[in-house]
Amino acid sequence: MNKLKELRIKYKLTQKELAKNLGVTPDYISQIERGRIPGMETAIKIANFFNTTVDEIFLANNRTKSSQQ
């Protein structure tokens, strides 16, 4: 599962609620959860919102995909 989706579910947020907090659309959150890489500004907003790092959210996804191949 995508790390962003894991965090969103852990915090009991819908895509719509998370999007509102970040100032983006729910569709954009959905795209990120399906593998789209967000712009740096959005990635930083996401990391700050969940009190973690950009690397933890987005590089963890890449490491998981690489180890599965």
Describe the protein.
- This protein is mostly helical.
- It has one domain (3-64): Orthogonal Bundle (434 Repressor (Amino-terminal Domain)), CATH 1.10.260.
- It is 71% helix and 0% strand.
- It contains 5 helices and no strands.
- The chain has helices spanning 3-10, 15-22, 26-33, 40-49, 54-68.
- Helix 2 packs across helix 3 and helix 4 packs across helix 5 (54-68).
- The protein is globular and about 25 Å long.
- The two termini are 15 Å apart.
- Mean pLDDT is 90; it is low at 64-69.
SSE order in H/E notation?
HHHHH
Number of DSSP helical runs:
5
Integer-rounded radius of gyration = 11 Å
Shape: globular
Count the E strands: 0
| Alpha-carbon distance between the two ends | 15 Å
* Overall helicity: over 70%
- Superfamily (CATH H level) name: lambda repressor-like DNA-binding domains
Query: How much of the sequence is in beta strands?
Result: under 5%
Class based on secondary structure composition and strand pairing: mainly alpha
- Say what the CATH topology is: 434 Repressor (Amino-terminal Domain)
What would a concise description of this structure say?
Keywords: DNA-binding. This protein has five helices and no strands.
